[in-house]
Write a structure and sequence with these properties.
The complex is a heterodimer of chains A (267) and B (238).
Chain A (H helix, E strand, L loop, with lengths): L1 H4 L5 H15 L2 H22 L4 H35 L1 H7 L4 H30 L5 H29 L2 H26 L9 H16 L9 H4 L6 H28 L3
Helix pairs in contact in A: 2-6, 3-4, 3-6, 4-6, 4-7, 4-8, 6-7, 6-11, 7-8, 7-11, 8-9
Chain B lengths: L15 H21 L15 H7 L4 H13 L16 H14 L5 H9 L6 H14 L4 H18 L3 H15 L7 H4 L1 H6 L4 H14 L6 H16 L1
Helix pairs in contact in B: 3-4, 4-5, 4-6, 5-7, 6-7, 7-8, 7-11, 11-12
Classes of the chains: A mainly alpha (267), B mainly alpha (238).
């Protein structure tokens, strides 16, 4: 089917294009625009209440809400469309064509990551319009970092949805993944410095080991899209480069994990 | 393709009983809302701030937006600073604790210091004013480049509002000590100790300080500019 209607496209690019078309037809773009406008208005209201640093208040609030909103929305889009593919039989139809499971996973993931980049670009565009003087470059860096964070989230959402194959467990798993990835640094710090407990007791040691293990498995999302960058603060190029490498590596890791699970199952 | 207001092909309608029950329920909802009335913004107790770790957890380890939201939350507890009932119900010890907490979450933010120096010192209570001026003096040395204007303001508050010229001189000396090597701090601020010693009257001190702040070009926020200009006008009308 893919080769009949899109003979010039490779299977991967056709699947990526299909993913974007599905997102467009699901009215995601219109909802995204509505969301961007609503946060913009909320930020303007908060800035009008602030006695000073109104622009910074608006930027900080908008940065936080855009990040949280886009993460939750994109995770839901990925989970719901993947579960629909699997339960509705579309996944089986696709695999009936000369399309390997690896091509399916990589193509879908590429499509969702492109969607994430577009969403981050929209949020960055709005943030640029609110940027403090001299802070546009930092806002662009924040936008790039947000895009990388969203890429990790959609890759993880695809992994959970292919593995769990139900909307609620997959979405809950993705949200738990995101929460732990963001709170990792705080949790490890609290585990390393227990208050009112004996540092050598078995429960403290076990807790520290658990958080260390999570630290090996989860990406440090707290360092992605930091709010000081949105406020025009100094940007460390090496940090952004490290985030880029880490995001691509982790997305590949999620794709690998999805494939290990997918190849084990009967379709 | 023509645009139509109504779908001509709508063949089904809801039964009248269903519509009637729905309208009744909607009327009940509106009646409940009217009975409840508009909630009044009473002076709720502020309480103690959470721990820094708890705040970082609540904010998903993104403390800066949380600090901004807490600024507005704290501000909503005293909309008319020092002039109406709500400030009497504020525990200034708790207010200082919240300002410290917000500053820990976002050390670059100036809002807590502005609130301490300009808003909460407007209450006619020397003890409360002293809590705020000491808060600013405690945090000024950590970042004198950004915080010098709050220190200048508390020196003015000490002289003009608290009528304590010795305290004003101590604050001005502290301002000079940490700003001597900073050319970005205006000369009039670094030399504030001198003109305080010159024994000007309160109105001239206020005019000199607030006028210099306005003329310095360091204030960019419209709300802050409006606030300072209004304060100067009120002083001149006294």
């Amino acid at each position: 089917m893919l080769q009949t209607f899109l003979p010039k496209l490779t299977p991967l690019s056709a699947l990526t294009r299909l993913t974007l078309i599905e997102a467009w037809r699901g009215r995601s773009a219109r909802l995204l625009l509505l969301f961007l406008a609503a946060v913009y208005a909320l930020g303007a209201f908060a800035a009008s209440m602030a006695v000073t640093e109104g622009a910074e208040t608006r930027l900080a609030l908008a940065a936080h809400l855009y990040r949280l909103g886009l993460v939750l929305a994109l995770a839901l889009i990925v989970v719901s469309s993947t579960v629909r593919d699997v339960e509705g039989g579309f996944f089986q139809v696709l695999l009936a064509f000369p399309l390997s499971r690896a091509q399916f996973v990589v193509g879908r993931q590429a499509g969702y990551m492109l969607l994430a980049v577009l969403a981050a670009a929209g949020a960055t565009g709005v943030m640029l319009s609110m940027a403090v003087p001299g802070g546009r470059t930092a806002v662009l860096a924040w936008g790039a970092s947000l895009a990388l964070e969203l890429c990790i989230v959609v890759a993880a959402a695809l992994f959970f949805s292919l593995g769990l194959r139900r909307v609620l467990p997959a979405y809950a798993g993705c949200c738990a993944f995101y929460l732990w990835a963001r709170l990792l640094d705080v949790a490890r710090f609290m585990a390393a410095h227990p208050v009112g407990q004996d540092g050598g007791s078995w429960d403290v040691v076990a807790g520290r080991a658990v958080f260390d293990l999570l630290g090996w498995l989860l990406p440090p999302l707290a360092s992605f899209a930091p709010s000081p960058w949105a406020l025009g603060g100094p940007v460390q190029g090496t940090q952004l480069a490290l985030q880029c490498g880490w995001a691509l590596w982790y997305a590949a890791l999620c794709a690998g994990a999805s494939l290990v699970d997918l190849y084990r199952r009967e379709v | 393709m023509r645009f139509r207001w109504r779908l001509a092909s709508a063949a089904r309608r809801a039964p009248a009983r269903v519509v009637a029950v729905f309208m009744l329920l909607l009327a009940g909802q509106v009646a409940l809302a009217l009975w409840r009335g508009v909630p009044e913004a009473g002076a709720q107790p502020l309480g103690r701030p959470p721990s820094l770790a708890a705040s970082r957890l609540m904010s998903l380890d993104d403390p800066v937006p949380l600090a901004r939201m807490l600024d507005l939350y704290l501000q909503a507890h005293d909309v008319q600073p020092g002039l109406s009932l709500p400030w009497r119900e504020l525990d200034y010890g708790e207010v200082v604790a919240w300002l410290e907490h917000i500053l820990q979450l976002d050390p670059q933010g100036q809002y807590p210091l502005l609130a301490a120096a300009r808003l909460y010192t407007q209450v006619p209570d020397t003890q409360r004013q002293r809590l705020m001026t000491d808060f600013v003096a405690r945090h000024y040395p950590q970042d004198p480049l950004r915080r010098w204007r709050w220190m200048a303001h508390v020196a003015y508050v000490a002289k003009v509002q608290m009528k304590d010229p010795e305290l004003a001189l101590r604050y001005a000396a502290e301002l000079r000590r940490h700003a001597e090597h900073l050319p970005q701090v205006p000369a009039w601020a670094r030399q504030m100790e001198i003109f305080l010693r010159m024994g000007q009257n309160d109105l001239d001190t206020a005019r000199a300080l607030l006028g210099a702040l306005l003329a310095s070009g360091q204030i960019h926020d419209d709300n802050e500019l409006r606030f300072l200009t209004q304060t100067l006008k009120e002083l001149e009308q006294k």
